[in-house]
Specification:
346 residues, mainly alpha, two-stranded antiparallel sheet, 57% helix, 3% strand, AcaB
Length: 346
């Protein structure tokens, strides 16, 4: 640090003793000519006290959370129906339509379970990704066909895509990325329908073409929204399976009211954590998961807390229980012997 300061002092003194080499009136030609000959740039002093904001930088603070704003605008009725969904009628005259709002809610549950090392949640999120890619690919293929159909025509000078005079707009706020990804896919599907309506309105698209380019894509999109219909947000951990605790999973299902449901078969690479979804949250460490389970249940009661106890504690408790059981059986045998002796005196 001393060498840097001395070097800087010598350069400053040299510059003060030769003011003719510096042009302080501006960045003119004289400054450019003297720069290469005698001017030497002073070395920066690495002294934090000389920087005004360095001393007070430790007082800078930001809030604990961040937020964002996003909105979605839809122009077609088919897209709006997929946004809000529809419940099936009691007489099953009309089937239900899975909506993006319900999908986002279920995806948030699967996302939270994935942070707790739930292999079933990872398996369903992988299914969501596969169906998302399938629906996205179909939408892109149909969109490319319709755009080419409208571009190659030579009848009209320019064709504007149909717009709704009163479109539907909604402010988006989801807790996991899959809600926004579903909305992005729905927006692409809405644009596809607008192109198809435009082509059909001017007579370039028939009913059979509509079925192939629009209806089949809608089926793929609804299949994507139905990816999580069978997912049950039941807490579980990969460690339970590694520790031979699969027989206790039934207790968790029963606690949540799913006693008649069986746990799905999870592939080995997903169970081990080797394969996870591309879009997935990081897994919390075991200490954080234990803290969440203790705070939010159902692991606060005795029956559920046994699921997450370390193996050594469970083994010690089992050994102690066996000893107590043996002692109780020995007392019963001794009492029976005394009773027989009293009933049969010599």
């Amino acid at each position: 640090m001393t060498d840097i300061k001395n070097t800087n002092d010598e350069q400053v003194k040299s510059a003060e003793s030769s003011p003719k080499n510096l042009n302080t009136s501006g960045f003119g030609s004289s400054f450019g000519s003297s720069f290469g000959s005698s001017f030497r740039r002073p070395t920066m002093m690495l002294d934090s006290a000389a920087i005004p904001w360095a001393a007070s930088g430790s007082g800078a603070r930001v809030g604990p959370s961040m937020s964002m704003e996003a909105s979605l605008t839809l122009h077609t009725k088919l897209a709006v129906n997929l946004w809000k969904g529809r419940k099936p009628t009691s007489a099953k005259v009309r089937d239900g339509i899975p909506g993006v709002l319900r999908f986002a809610k279920e995806a948030s549950k699967a996302w939270n379970e994935a942070t707790m090392s739930n292999p079933v949640a990872d398996m369903y999120l992988i299914l969501v990704e596969e169906r998302y890619e399938k629906a996205s690919r179909k939408i892109e293929e149909s969109t490319a066909i319709l755009k080419e159909l409208l571009d190659v025509q030579n009848v009209f000078d320019g064709i504007g895509v149909m717009n709704n005079n009163k479109p539907f707009s909604y402010e988006l706020r989801f807790s996991c990325p899959w809600g926004y990804l579903a909305c992005a896919l729905l927006k692409k599907y809405d644009d596809l329908i607008r192109l198809a309506l435009t082509a059909k309105h001017i007579g370039f698209l028939g009913d059979q073409d509509w079925k192939i380019l629009v209806n089949d894509v809608g089926k793929a999109f609804r299949g994507f929204l139905q990816s999580l219909d069978a997912f049950i947000p039941v807490p579980m951990d990969r460690n339970w399976f590694e520790r031979g605790m699969t027989h206790k999973i039934a207790k968790v299902y029963k606690h949540y009211g799913f006693a008649n449901r069986e746990m799905p078969n999870v592939p080995d690479d997903i169970m081990s954590g080797e394969r996870r979804p591309k879009v997935c949250p990081p897994i919390k460490n075991e200490a954080e998961r234990q803290k969440i389970w203790d705070a939010n249940g159902p692991f606060t009661n005795k029956d559920m807390s046994e699921l997450v106890k370390p193996m050594t504690i469970r083994a010690d408790e089992a050994k102690k229980a066996r000893k107590e059981r043996y002692k109780a059986e020995a007392r019963k045998r001794s009492q029976r012997v005394e009773t027989d002796d009293n009933n049969n005196p010599d």
